[in-house]
Amino acid sequence: MNGKKGSIVIKIDDRPETGKKDSGDVGESPAKKWIRDVWQFAKEDMNRITFSLKVGLAVLLVSLLILIRAPYEVFGTSIIWSILTVAIMFEYTVGATFNRGFNRALGSLLAGIFAITMMQVAMACGQIAEPYIIALSIFFVGAITSFMKLYPSLVPYEYGFRVILFTYCLIIISGYRMGNPIRTAMDRMYSIAIGGIVTVLVNSLVFPIWAGEQLHLELVGSFNAVADSLEECVKKYLADDGSSHPEFSKTVMDDFADEPAFHKCRATLNSSAKFEAVANSAKWEPPHGRFRHFFYPWSEYVKVGAVLRHCAYEVMALHGCLHSEIQAPYNLRCAFQPEILDATNQAAELLRSLGKDINNMKRSLQTNLLKRVHSSTERLQRSIDMHSYLLTSSHEIQDCPPKLPISQPSNTVTCTSKDSLSQVEKSESNNEKPNSADTKPVQGDSYHETMRKQQRRLYSWPSREVDDYEDGDVDTEMLQKMRTFESTAALSLATFTSLLIEFVARLDHLVDATDLLAKMAKFKEDY
Amino acid sequence: MNGKKGSIVIKIDDRPETGKKDSGDVGESPAKKWIRDVWQFAKEDMNRITFSLKVGLAVLLVSLLILIRAPYEVFGTSIIWSILTVAIMFEYTVGATFNRGFNRALGSLLAGIFAITMMQVAMACGQIAEPYIIALSIFFVGAITSFMKLYPSLVPYEYGFRVILFTYCLIIISGYRMGNPIRTAMDRMYSIAIGGIVTVLVNSLVFPIWAGEQLHLELVGSFNAVADSLEECVKKYLADDGSSHPEFSKTVMDDFADEPAFHKCRATLNSSAKFEAVANSAKWEPPHGRFRHFFYPWSEYVKVGAVLRHCAYEVMALHGCLHSEIQAPYNLRCAFQPEILDATNQAAELLRSLGKDINNMKRSLQTNLLKRVHSSTERLQRSIDMHSYLLTSSHEIQDCPPKLPISQPSNTVTCTSKDSLSQVEKSESNNEKPNSADTKPVQGDSYHETMRKQQRRLYSWPSREVDDYEDGDVDTEMLQKMRTFESTAALSLATFTSLLIEFVARLDHLVDATDLLAKMAKFKEDY
Fold first, then answer.
1. Are residues B325 and A512, on separate chains, in Cβ contact within 8 Å?
2. Do strands A362-363 and A524-525 pair parallel, antiparallel, or not at all (unpaired)?
3. Is the predicted pLDDT of residue A421 greater than 60, yes or no?
4. Most exposed among B185, B305, B373, B459, judged by the fewest C-beta atoms under 10 Å?
5. Nearest by CB to B404, which of A12, A395, A409?
6. Could you tell me how far CA B130 lies from the centroid of its own chain?
């Protein structure tokens, strides 16, 4: 077993999920570093300390029932069961503790009733049959509870089934050996109840950690995570000049170490189970803090989370584009930079504003922001539309080189800094005269010749001069292949922007879902 | 509490995750339906029955130690602890049980040692100080174990910390009240050990359910899920003629009820935690069944799973395109149907073949399939490249209507049924003569006129005739907006194909990862 234990230990060392920020200091002793890591971890969320001290307090209170003579004489040794109950029932949030307590209580109750009934049946059957009946009943209780806890809709009550199993066994067996099963069962129930009550009281009265509050903050955090990740991804895409493209598999294994926001976004994507669990706990909590009315719509939080995740999938796709094998040329990306950046920033701002509104429990319509997002996206669409020849390039340009009157429709685009695009236009209008002679379709060799020439001009643009290549003798077949690849590469920019636009389109639904939540949770209106 | 309990019950009824197939019979009594659902659930995976019966057997065996007089007289009442141990330790797979047993054993041992030490210290401090020292130690053990189990790298050992807490409390308190803590601790250890041994023996000798086997099958299943989902998504995309486009939010809430493969694919995406948990369990298992050598590379399974998930994100993006707000016209999608379908089928076949090889523990290079995938993708790329004017449409066509010699480069594309594309070509070559007059750039109104005309022809193509629209008086501003939208819509096809191509590009890495797994797991070679 030693070897196996070793491999587990290595795995722990592999993932210092906290304390990443501390990598600055190197010449530090491991013990010191470890203490600082733990301290950092505790500081991140002071609730962790609160929780730990509360558990300590709860077990201490129960232990006092034994350590002090008076209660010990009342309850007897069976009081140790209350310690077990505290250790098993104490959960992080109030709701989860209530939920677990409910499982424990119902499980114990069912097991108790069933055990006593069974005991009477066994005793009625006579002394010889008794142990056989008990053994058989234990076997069936074990098999049935184990089967039921596998059933998908009963999985959340897994703990309850375990409780039924061992409580049943304990009661029926102690009853058989010690006589008076009802007394045994009652004693056990008392001590379990004491443990449960101590747990619930300490958990909900001493600095309570509410699942509802956690869910609320989690949702707000998700909005910010998606917004951050979107901005990070787009910024990286526009900055990526193709010079430093590491191996894909390495990036996957490194898990995109240089993209912290991406990690948060992916965590949001994987948080659906957590969301549902916390919402499930929150439903058990009484009105508290900011959430002051009964039947608070916790399930709406889950729904908003689902729509947000649907938006986040689009961010994952954008991230996929960023790390795609086939990349649009850097210059092409630069050409659309202002519009892409503008749309991204507006979308991120809308997301953050939605998150902020939920956080402040305010209900506002976001009309202005939504309008701005839409108009900036429309600008991006129009810009892509205007300059779509840059994206597909190959065939049309064979016949008609880009001497089209771009400047004329261009004035409908109301962007601020369009230096890159105008540069393209200029560089292309320079070549206008010599190429305009080739405008008519030419068949055969000379046609291909023209095509190739323009092809090269387009893709080496704007850093190189056309004439540099004029003398070279390039293989047509090879060129054909390259061209196909390059065309796909240029289309990858179209993909990126399409995904961005789709992301914005989904924001509408997010606004709707958020508004529904605000309405149902009766957030204060703020128009 | 009743109201809350009710809401939980409703939630259970909401999700009949099993038994979906049985919706055919309506006039059935609920009890009968329920029994059939349960039967269906058991039949899906007979291991569930096996597991349940094994748990029954294990608790029965431990109970016999008390029910039969001879062992009961040896062990005494503390034997009931072994029942608790079985109920808590018995897990679904052998590896998970070993892992849990290790947690339990180490936790109990640490708690025992610490409790005995503490007991000696307390006794040495005199009778008055003793209870205070014990109480303080309980408080600190409770607080420290609770804090440590929150620490991310220690979360898998959460159960171990709970065991430490309650074992410590039980030993030190019973020791205080009953005297002779070492005797108490030893008795407890014996019975826990007996429970643990019974659990481990029953779990690993009677029809063992191996985590390794589960992981193996899970990975193979994931390959098939991604392949199915890819095919389903592409098929749906090509078949979707825009006639029945339900509300997006409704689709999200319905959770895409008509796409079973999509659900499986998303489950694969969310399975990273499960994969790691099962791999973690598998590491605890001795060589067994098909996995006959020591240090079997279970972690490689997790890595292949990660790369596969990276491919699956692309499928999610494709699925996003399918349910996108902005859709490419149906006819345009039809135009590229043969190439898209071909690439999809090849990719799905490669995925399935990889899955099958893993399943059969064979190592083959997949060169042929990979080559075919590549060439079919290349054909798709080339076809998109050839007909990219269809995708961006607006500006180039203003100057040069599609009278380009498509048929000439088209012979490099070796597709079987290109009826749709050739139809486009024909319908466009019909208009060749009248349009070729407008080839030169025309400024002002007449330029816009031409543009508009061609615009409409392109987007109403091929179902309507150009001349139908000639007389209508359409607002230019409106047309401009529509055009932008339509151009983006057409680009959405480019997005779809780009994502598909990117998916194929990632398959290379999947092949590499799978090959590495095959090498490390020493699959038999099969070239």
1. no
2. parallel
3. no
4. B459
5. A395
6. 55
pLDDT in tens, B300-344: 999 899 889 888 888 888 888 887 766 777 877 888 888 899 999
Best CA proximity match to A408, nearest among B398, B390, B439: B398
Range picked from A277-281, A328-332, A344-348, B417-421 for highest mean pLDDT = A344-348
Hey, what are B270's tokens?
């969310």
**Closest approach of A146 to chain B, Cα-based (Å):** 5
CA dihedral B167, B172, B175, B180 (to 10 degrees): 90
Give the number of other CB atoms < 10 A from CB of residue B65: 21
With beta carbons less than 8 A apart as the criterion, state whether A238 and A333 touch.
Answer: yes
Predicted TM-score (pTM) of this structure: 0.72
Q: On the CB side of B148, how many CA atoms lie within 13 Å of its CA?
A: 17
B82 contact partners, CB below 8 Å, separation of at least 6: B62, B65, B191, B192, B194, B195, B198
Average pLDDT score over chain B = 74
Tell me which residue in A60, A320, A494 faces B317 most closely, judged by beta carbons: A320
Question: Rounded to the nearest 5°, which phi and psi values hold at B363?
Answer: -115, 110
- Tens of pLDDT, residue by residue over B73-129, are 777 777 778 888 888 889 899 999 999 888 888 998 899 899 889 988 888 888 888
From B180, B228, B494, select the one nearest B344 (Cα to Cα): B228
Residue type, B206: V
Question: Could you count the other beta carbons within 10 Å of the beta carbon of residue B50?
Answer: 14
Q: Which of B173, B188, B272 to mutate to test the interface with A (most CBs of A within 10 A)?
A: B173
Residue type at position B345: N
If you write DSSP's letter for every residue of A395-434 in order, what string do you get? HHHHHS-S-S-THHHHTT---S--HHHHHHHHHHHHTHHH
Q: Is the dihedral of CA A512, A514, A517, A522 positive or negative?
A: negative
Give the closest residue to B65 by CA, choosing from B56, B57, B76, B54.
Answer: B76
Cβ contact (<8 Å) for B483 and A385? Answer: yes
CA-wise closest residue to A83 among A99, A94, A67, A69: A67
* Neighbour-count burial of B25, counting CB atoms closer than 10 A to its CB (0-12 exposed, 13-18 middle, 19+ buried): exposed
Distance from CA of B50 to the nearest CA of A (A): 9
- B117 with B238: CB under 8 angstroms? no
A402-430 CB burial, b ≥16 within 10 A, e <16: bbbebeebbeebebeebebbeebbeebee
pLDDT at res. A175: 78
Task: Kindly write down the DSSP assignment for every residue of A149-176, as one continuous string.
Answer: TTSGGGGGGHHHHHHHHHHHHHHHHHHH
Distance of CA B142 to the CA centre of its chain: 37
